[in-house]
Amino acid sequence: MKARLIILLTAVLACSCSLDEKLTSYSVQTDYYRNAKEIQTGLNACYSPIREIYANVSFWQMTECATDLMYLNVHNQYNAICNVTPSRPGCAITIWRAGYLGVSRANSILAAIQRAYSKGWISASEESELRAEAIILRAFYYYVLTATFGDVPFYEEEVTEQNRPRITALPRMSADATRDCMIDELRAAVLPLTRGGGQLLPLVRTYDDGTSYRMGAAVGLFLGGRMALWNHRWQDAVDFFSSLEDIYGELSRYPLTDIPFSRKYTPESIWEVSQTYEPYGLQVVAAIAPWSTPVRRMVYTDDEQAVAESTHCFYNGIAIPELGRESHIYTCARPTAYVYQNLLAYNSPDLRTGEYSDGSNTPRGGSGTLAWRWSGFDPTTPEESWTPASRGVYWFTAVGKASACPWLGNKFWCYDMKYTRDYNNYKVFRYASALLGLSEAYLELGDLPRSVQYLNKTRRRAGLNDLSLTDVGGEKERLMEEIRCECAKELLGEFQRKFDLVRWGIWYERTIQYNTASNLIANIRPCHRYWPIPSDQVAASGGVLDNKEYGE
């Protein structure tokens, strides 16, 4: 954590904010933030650690592959197989460093906002909006930190040379207490006045203005709702998520075809981590697509002729030109049998099952979660004979029949990917998740009819019949299991599954039951519900921090 906030040009480029301010060099922080534009430059730097976390494929492997929904049985992908310890913490290093960098920067900007307002450099309205954005950013980082590590050190003051030693030696604080602080701050910052909040920001969707965005009220409301679910503050969750419902309206307005990561800045999205790729220009990329696309056969040799011949668009037995000829695909994550046999079976009417999973050659207009077959060309035919009329739907070679394990679908593919440069936008928070949160909150409040009502919103959009209380025998636990299954189908691959399973208290049992990756089964322990604090951070704290669960 740094005593001074340093504005990085790379942070400005990476956060996809609309920037027209000019960066100014400075040596003393208190001499700088004298107007709203200068404070916004500091806020811009608060965004860059988000990409460090979510563009790190290891974070995706931890949150999705080490669960009941996906597996990646590769021995050196430590986060996917729970082969982590305090001395080899995997992506915990990045999450801890980036998370606290984000907290530190947000704290510094909040202090700068207070100074600027007290000295009359910014107006009351400017102070309110800037402070609310910084509060949301800080809450975002504490949400990720507590979900990943559980109890973590908590502080809200600006780091200085004087207080740095004390902050470095802070012990873990209860994750519930940390989230309670964030929930209360978010209520005062973004909850509508009609629901007893402070409402310092406009109540609008995040991407109503296209790609020119910042973290606004929608992100704050979602974070407040999610942390309220963690802390069993069910009425708070209803307040936050219902406010999002007031903003976003009916889920049916947002098509399933907008869910794939290749569809950028879609209206349903509450927050996306953005990437871009220009062949001879700006390249801000990540690498989830190489771990989730059907394999493309490659030739690794010094023979230039052989390499040239391996430049093709053949993906596991299907020629798919739109996926490109230069992608490099790794050993891919695959859905567990629990997903493709129980939740999203090949012949399911659920539109999230796959685009060509009903036996026809017509796209179903789904979310592209799984792929048994795909539209393309027979790679054994001459390329010059490929025409739109000759395009057909073929089984992938490694699948071949509906009972075999499918690939992950086009929800995760990056079209025309160059090598491993995935330039999709990663959907981190979506409106559908808020509606499922409402279903869970109403269930816990004892209002089962309303819980079913919100559960049916995502089911109905996916082409399924409405569920009734009779279908679950009017039983709370059976309805809760339906909510868990619906979260699995709707949000698969969106960085939430492990956090949900841990929050429900069933991560270890469900993962052991459904994830059959031999490397994971050999390593997984109950302590892995939270990733370990890196040992160098434990040492830096003078031993105040610990990993007692891992010791046991």
Compose a concise summary of this entry.
The protein has 19 helices and twelve strands. It has 552 residues and is mostly helical. The two termini are 30 Å apart.
Write the layout of secondary structure elements.
Elements: H1 9-14, H2 36-54, H3 57-65, E1 70-71, H4 92-118, H5 124-149, H6 164-168, H7 175-190, H8 217-230, H9 234-248, E2 269-273, E3 276-277, E4 283-284, H10 304-309, E5 314-315, E6 318-319, E7 334-335, H11 337-343, E8 370-371, E9 373-376, E10 392-395, E11 407-408, E12 426-430, H12 431-444, H13 448-461, H14 476-491, H15 497-504, H16 507-514, H17 518-523, H18 535-540, H19 548-551
Antiparallel strand pairs: 1-7, 2-12, 3-4, 5-6, 8-11, 9-10
Helix pairs in contact: 2-4, 2-5, 4-5, 5-7, 5-8, 7-8, 8-9, 8-12, 9-12, 12-13, 12-14, 13-14
Query: What's the overall average pLDDT, rounded?
Result: 91
* Rg of Cα set: 24 Å
What proportion of the residues is helical, as a percent range?
Answer: 40-55%
How would a crystallographer describe the biggest sheet?
2 strands, antiparallel
